[in-house]
Amino acid sequence: MTEVGTRIAVIRGARIAGPGREFLMDDEPVDIHVDAGRIVDIAPAGSLAAGGQILEADGAWVVPGLWDSHVHTVQWALASEREQLGDSVSALDAARRMSTIAPLSDGRRVGTGFRDALWADSPSLDVLDEATGAVPTYLINADVHSVWVNSAALTREGFSSPDGMLREEDAFEISKRVNAVEPDHGDRAVRAAGTAAASKGVTGIVDFDMAWNADAWTRRAGGGFGTQRVEFAVYPADLTRAIAEGLRTGELLPRTDGLIRIGPLKIITDGSLGTRTAACSHAYPGDDGDFGVMNIPPSDLIELLTTAVGSGLNVAVHAIGDRAVSSALDAVTVTGASGTIEHAQLVRHADLARLARLGLVASVQPQHALDDRDLVDGYWAAQTAVGYPMASLLRAGAELRLGSDAPVAPLDPWCAIAAAVERTDDEREAWHPEERLSVDEALSASVRSAVRPGEPADLVVCGADPHATGADLRRMPILATLLGGRVTHLG
User: Fold this and answer.
1) What is the mean pLDDT of the chain?
2) How far is CA 311 from CA 245, 269, 314, 359, in A?
3) Would you say the pTM of this structure is higher than 0.90?
């Protein structure tokens, strides 16, 4: 009997979609044979003897295991415990909703996902204090670059702010504190979130938690986490420690069953659109001197990248505005660093090709384009660079990787694929349809392997053909997910 945890020897009667399909002559069902965690053969259905545990596909479609290339893992895992404010319509509405929820075990009230840039009113300390009183209350912006807190929270955390809004480094510090739950609590939440991700076909994530992740992932793997492969980032505050402990990008973390690898050095060079701090060439409306925020001066960025290169670490450079993207590319040109540009939401035309020539990967989040389209029309109306490019980056020769930035957007690669292919998620026409990807392009940007012999048996059995006309990609039924041939989800 096939159940979660079963090691599969054959997926029988499957059709292949996505990377690997190009090696087949037709769409007839095939058997995918697996041994020692890898695909060892693909043959016409029934042509080879099947030994071991069989998973019947019954003509369903198999794609390679899906990756989410940008996840804030603990914050994503804890989001279910927090008040969801994505549909709040005003500061007053959000404040009143926070007043009705019970504090968490640490005494804090925490909400997440608000977008004040879409509100007619502005967050203020008075409004939040009047609604929430003496209970420390924290509202985390959807983009995580700002946090709205009341006076009780300011006192508790030792911060001050005339309007209760903390931005950039202060906001990151607050998020780190509210995410610092007891290890057992956090690990249970991460395991549950990993199981939910497996139900979407996710077999790998890149973890950008703002913490020392080496110990955390060793502990989680030892405690039974086994639903995804993980690459975890290091932040500049821990760079010296990472170098001293010999962390190198791509190497396996010991005692993690081959699932956890060391990832890049993550550097946040500018802000975000939602907090109006992304570093841009043209000023934000209403203030001719407001061009956003560069969190890392160019000279410091070059120094960080130089250290990373000399220490065997790739880099993941957060750069949203076009000034930040250009600064990152300048630093890579000087240092020869390898890695990714994270987000790349506003890119100068000349930098599209420059990013590709430098061999960098554009790690983008297609759902952000749809969530932010109304903000772009307001705050970035004067910008002349390309907004939320995807097809333009591909045409320039860059490699794309898709992700969610969870919990900023849902950790669901099918939502990301649909956003990339359709460029709309409501009744409106596609937003900048020239930046659409094909289904094959979006799938290729969502995987790290292919369905072919020699590749890892990280596989997803889908209940519909991703290429079918009219297929609802956002609601793709997942019949089974395999990680190294082991079942992590059964639909």
Assistant:
1) 97
2) 11, 20, 9, 19
3) yes
